[in-house]
Write a structure and sequence with these properties.
Blueprint: E1 12-14, E2 19-21, E3 30-35, E4 41-46, E5 51-55, E6 60-65, E7 74-80, E8 83-89, E9 93-98, E10 111-112, E11 118-123, E12 129-134, E13 138-143, E14 154-155, E15 160-165, E16 172-176, E17 180-184, E18 189-194, E19 209-211, E20 217-221, E21 229-233, E22 238-244, E23 251-256, E24 262-267, E25 271-276, E26 281-287, E27 292-297, E28 303-308, E29 313-317, H1 320-323, H2 333-341, H3 344-357, H4 362-374, H5 378-391, H6 395-407, H7 411-421, H8 429-445, H9 449-462, H10 468-488, H11 492-506, H12 519-525, H13 532-546, H14 550-562, H15 566-571, H16 573-596, H17 600-613, H18 618-630, H19 634-647, H20 652-664, H21 668-683, H22 688-692, H23 700-715, E30 722-724, E31 730-731, H24 733-741, H25 744-754, H26 761-772, E32 774-778, H27 788-791, H28 804-817, E33 822-824, H29 835-850, E34 854-858, H30 870-873, H31 882-887, E35 892-895, H32 914-924, H33 928-932, H34 941-948, H35 958-961, H36 964-967, H37 978-994, H38 1032-1042, H39 1046-1059, E36 1065-1067, E37 1070-1088, E38 1096-1102, E39 1108-1112, E40 1129-1134, H40 1175-1188, ...
Parallel strand pairs: 1-26, 32-33, 32-34, 34-35
Antiparallel strand pairs: 2-29, 3-4, 4-5, 5-6, 7-8, 8-9, 9-10, 11-12, 12-13, 13-14, 15-16, 16-17, 17-18, 19-20, 20-21, 21-22, 23-24, 24-25, 25-26, 27-28, 28-29, 30-31, 30-33, 36-37, 37-38, 37-40, 37-44, 38-39, 40-41, 41-42, 41-43
Helix pairs in contact: 2-3, 2-12, 3-4, 4-5, 4-6, 5-6, 6-7, 6-8, 7-8, 8-9, 8-10, 9-10, 10-11, 10-13, 11-13, 13-14, 13-16, 14-16, 16-17, 17-18, 18-19, 18-20, 19-20, 20-21, 21-25, 23-25, 23-26, 25-26, 38-40, 39-40
Keywords: Repeat, WD repeat
WD repeats: 23-64, 111-146, 244-285, 285-316
Protein name: Heterokaryon incompatibility domain-containing protein
Amino acid sequence: MPEEADQPMIPILTTKPVHTFEDNENADIVLGLAVFPDRQHMVTGSADRMLRLWNLKDHTVTRKMEGHRGRVRAVAVAELNGKQLIASADNREVVVQDRDTGEFLTSGSVIKAHSEYIRSLDFSPDGTMLATGSMDNTTKLWNTETWQQQGNQINCNSAVYSVRYSPSGELLAIATKSDIQIWNPETRDRIASFKDRMHKFYLGSSLPLAWMPDGTRLLSGGCKSDPTIREWDIFTGQQVGDPWKGHSHDINAIAVNSNGTLVASASTDHRVHLWQLWDRKTIAIFRHSSSVRCVAFSVDGNRIFSGGDDNKISEWVVPEHALCDVKMLTINTMARNACIIGDLSKAAELLTREIDAVANNHSSYANRSFVMARKHNWDHALHDASKSVDIQPSFTGYIAKGIALCWKKQVWNAIRAFDLASMFTNGDLKINHFLLLIKAVALFNADQHEEAFMGIQELAKACPHADTRACLIVEAYLRVQLGIRALDGARFNEAADYFAAAVNASSSSSKLAIHSKYEDFVVLFGWNLKSLWQTANQNRCHALLQACRLREALEAHQYMMDHSDESTKASWLDWSTTFKQQCSALYAADGDIAFSAKDYDKAIILYSAAMDLDAASGPIFVKRSKANLEKELWEDALLDAQKVIELDPSSYVGYELKHVALHGAQHYDAAIDALQTMLSNLNTASTPETRKLRQLYLDRSEAKGAIRKVIDAQLENAPFRMLNTATGFICDRDAQINTFSTSPEYKELLLLTMKNAEPQTEPIKKGVEKYFRCVMLSHRWEGNEKLLHEIQGRDVYKLDPVGTVVKLQKFCHVVRDAGYHWAWMDTCCIDKNSNAELQESLNSMFIWYRHSALTIVYLSDVPPSSTFGALAKSEWNKRGWTVQEFLAPKVILFYQRDWTLYLDDHSSNHKKSALIMQELGDATGIDPRALVDFHPDTRSAREKLKWASTRTTTRQEDIAYSLFGIFGVRLILDYGEKKQHALGRLLQEIVAQSGDISALDWVGKSSEFNSCLPADIASYEVPPCELPPLSEDAIQTSISSLRDTAAAASASELYTLLSEQTAPRFAQRRLHLPCMVFRVTEVLRRGHAQDERSYFTYDIKADGLRDLSIKSGEKLGQFSLARPFQKTVLLVRPWDRRLLELPDETQGVEDEFVPQPASQDLADGFLGENGTVDRDYQSRALRLIVRLEQQFNALLLIQQYDGGYKRIASDGDIIAQVRDTSSIQNMTVRRLEIL
């Protein structure tokens, strides 16, 4: 009966196979065979150098494949990329063929793999690698894509008999004549090696290996001297249990069925043994007529194929009892199936019917007790179990009672029931093993967890020959239950540990069909054993994730996927996708935290991890792109931005990131295009909020317009033409702008401008200024200077470096090396054939130098290493044009003849060098402060004219033209007008603009332009006459003496009269000069002067003035009161606003000084606005009288026929003085027209 112990099993001996595979043509010994996974084909290798492909259904040869030059000792099959591969080996060579076409898959027909004959070969489980082992003591791995050796060979130190990949492909077992070695094929690390006494005297021709399906155990076969199979624990290197005995000669091959329950071995003793794995016993023997060389199971495990010296392959049927164990529990099929599928009500109903039909059926009561326990009806379960035992004590009755008592937490009574159950096993190991496992589960259900696990572990240790896989399955299931409880209690770390233990315990069952005898656990406890491994793994992943052990959770997930076949993976796809999405979300959240903390490296890693786990969406690419941008990883950021665009082409975000990445990578055109596309997408965005963002930007054309305005403003103060220091070509203004518009600087600026709705003028201005910074050259023309037409369209760097070209080239080199784009040199950057351009250039030159970034002064006559003083002696310091060229610039550097810096001063601006400025000041007579910070205007004209009085120019008119910028005036240039007219026009403009008459203070010859002006600028070389000033004490003394006098009474009238005078006007060569006039009454010549200049000396008398004498080159008519003169002759004191001691104000011709109101009735004061006496005004009027009493520099004028006056030039200053205070009262104030 089923409940009784199994009787000792006698192996079934079979001598007649169900089928044979024979080739009647040239058949020979079969040395190797392999079955294809499609269950339809098998391939064999024979001693006749032939491969044969067999059809398993009709047992015929479908193809014979040649190519070997020796006996085909080994064959292996694999599927790769849709192709069915056959690898076979002979003496030293490997042949690889396509099963379906027969074509060779290697570049040659064979791979010359080894130097000695090959014993074994094996494909990796995924078909990507082929391992070959040879008698040359090596094992080699071959890449099945390229059929090239992968990495270095494995040196095994002894002849190799067998190579076998583990089921996972992670390990490679190699059997040598000396030992068994376990290698990691990826790293070439040897994991373990072990040997037994069989290796000490091994004399066989093969040493077969076979892996157990769980990859933890290895089987090896021995030779005639030790014809046993040994089982090895690869992690400890220890033999498991006793050797499997049964063969009497060499064991040539070993095969394990896919369920890991049966082992077949082929031997020279003409037999194939079929072993039951769980107890290592032979259950069937299949006998050949001669030695058996190879063996394999069919894919479904129901058949065995073996071949050998009988030149054929035999097909054997696996005995039915080997395929299905006897059930430990006897329960009718319908009730069993109901329990298995969980329909407990139906199961209870069926069993109740049995009880009703046969009242004393103890088995039915026991079986219903199992069902009631599963329904948590413990009392009913215990009642039925007790009833069963009362009717007839039995194995199932006491098991049912023990289970029910455990559920009711009556542990000791339950243990007693299980002990009584053992009395009915008749000592059968299998049944006892099953009972102890049931007891452990029941104790677990009674919350005796430690006791339960201890029982399972002791059982496995005490009975190594028993079904250890059952122990592992039970332990795994119970640990899963603990893990689920911990998970429900939010004890995630604890749960993770339980699930990890369950995974480790159940790993051997992950890919195996659940053996039928384990079905009893399903019936008793409702276990879902088929998904045990899946449940353990999935819950382990979930627990680790909840425990925030993200990396471990992903490792657990990867382990789960790596150890699952394709169909299993497909069934888990939804769960796996959801899990990875959860992990991805956590990684992304951690990435956000890292980004906020500015740990961008970490953020990138976390975002990348999130993306690897999930089909990344746009937001995660956006985040990683931003992190890459922060790290300036432009290309990586661009790839992410492009992905954002691909996912949502209408979104502006992707283009925003793209333009920033391209900008950073300096791909400016593409960056601008991306930004423009972003703006287009903002215009068409679906939400008003997004469309509103468009207002923050300018489009390309608007930004270009804003920049162009700044460019135009910048170039208003720049030369029309400049030298491009990068290319060496002259560029006009359009070319300059075009060059800028194609430059990285422009594109950078354009991007910056587009990103601001209100153009940021200052950044644009800075960018434009920086690019268009121009370096001006100040030098002395020498020899044949290159003009514009000579270098137009030519690269100055490529000109023949002779003469002045060297200066031009050196200048450009220095400017370029200093980092400037543009240089200007007056010789070649002005079109002197264009009068309009020449006019504008010379009028603008001061402004150009003033706005230059740097002015280089080239001293061609100052040798290298010159000392202080060389600058002052340079010819450059004597030229007219150079005055404005050193006054205008803010930054200046002096270079010597060899283009080294003067005095070896490497500062950035020689205007900040006190030493150089002092030398220049001494040489020019210009105060160093004015040299450093000069401002052009028409004031202090006499001093500025003195600066240029000793300088020379090639063209005589240039002495005046070169001063236009210094005075800030713009006039027409008229070469040919002669220097008197040129100078006259300049001085006329100075007086007209400023009213400053200091330019009238000169000694020499009168100008043809106007008699009040000198004929030559050299007239200003002599400093003006400095009359001794009156001290303040003397002034106050004089004022005191004037009070209460008639002069005091008239002082106000005179002050008012002078204060009402307007500034001089100078136009059309006529000077309208306000003056204090003294009529000359007598002119007498003393005689002809004897000096070389032929001056005459005249004694002159005038009303109100003391007598004086002058020298003049002009002849004056003599007259006196007795001898009157037809023309009026005057000595005049030009009106000077400073006499009024009012603030110095520059007034134009139309400007008038508005005096303060004065009263002529108050001798001691003047009425102010509120009617009080303005004593300050009174004081100034009296001070005026005192000053008018002092000497002054007078002009001698003679009236012309048209009423105007002409100035009579003298060879010295005409110093005049009023006779007394009354003379002041009697003098007249007039505005005279001087011709």
